Amino acid sequence: MDYVFGQLAADGILTGTHPANEPSVRLLKKLGFKGIDGGEFVISREEWLALGMESYRKLCLKRQTELRQIMTRSGQHDKAIDLFLRQHTMLHSAKMAARMAGTESWSFEDAVLDDMTEEQIRRIPRNCEHSVAWIIWHIARCEDITMNLLVAGGPQVLNQDGWLERVKTPICHTGNEMDVADIADFSTAVDIKALRAYRVAVGRRTREIAKQLGPEGLKRKVDPVRLQRVWDEGVVVEAASGIVDYWGKRDVAGLLLMPASRHLIVHLNEALKLKRRRQ
């Protein structure tokens, strides 16, 4: 099915089996096929994509639970970092990192965004507060700030290689506490291609940082001096001070869990819901 829908880009698959062939009927139903007249079964491309999306979303949640359980467990450092990197890979665009051995080729971001138009990515659906563009900015900024300012104590990706100018946004903060009008203005102005490329750069830097962390590094508390840089560099607005307080109470392992992995799941799920409301 991956070959038919992926390589051949088919719109659907029609097959059949005798109704009395119960094992085959059960298998086809398990694969998502729907029975039609005459013992024939069919599945559309859209139905296949939805099934695949749901199975991978469940896998992300399962892995996140396992990651939380082993992140600071004694003797599990290598396994924890390996699992974090696998989870992180699935939560970024496929352009961000080469697939690790044994890692699925699926990307949550790509599955949501790749078949959306820029207009759809910029749009705030009726009775919603965010656009998909804002979501990508928000999760990229939270990851950039926590991994680089708080964990590594280095410069933000946004402040290097001209990213702020390339993304064409008037803000540098996380986007928290923006009202719908401000989010609409941001979504209209931002360069979508550059925004996604910026998130790729953030993800790559996170992986470099994570690979350098030893067992004791995961247990390290956030340095108050580094936390002050969040305010000094204006990357969180005063009205959103609660997230800075939250970050300040975490250790490095906690920041890898939130926002560098679980936060991504939360907001990519939100992006998927917005996509489904685009009509």
What's the helix and strand layout?
Elements: H1 2-7, E1 12-16, H2 22-30, E2 34-35, E3 40-44, H3 45-70, H4 77-90, H5 108-113, H6 118-122, H7 132-152, H8 163-167, H9 180-189, H10 192-211, H11 215-219, H12 224-232, H13 241-248, H14 252-257, H15 262-276
Antiparallel strand pairs: 1-3, 2-3
Helix pairs in contact: 3-4, 4-10, 7-10, 7-12, 7-15
Please characterize this protein's 3D structure.
This protein is mainly alpha-helical and 279 residues long. It folds into 2 domains: 2-44, no CATH class; 71-276, Up-down Bundle (Four Helix Bundle (Hemerythrin (Met), subunit A)). The chain has 15 helices and 3 strands. A 3-stranded antiparallel sheet has the order 1-3-2. α3 (45-70) runs antiparallel to α4 (77-90) and α7 (132-152) packs antiparallel against α15. The two termini are 28 Å apart.
Level-1 CATH class name of the largest domain: Mainly Alpha
Order of helices and strands: HEHEEHHHHHHHHHHHHH
* Tally of DSSP β-strands: 3
Query: What is the structural class?
Result: mainly alpha
Strand order in space, largest sheet: 1-3-2
- Major pleated sheet: 3 strands, antiparallel
What's the CATH topology label of the largest domain?
Four Helix Bundle (Hemerythrin (Met), subunit A)
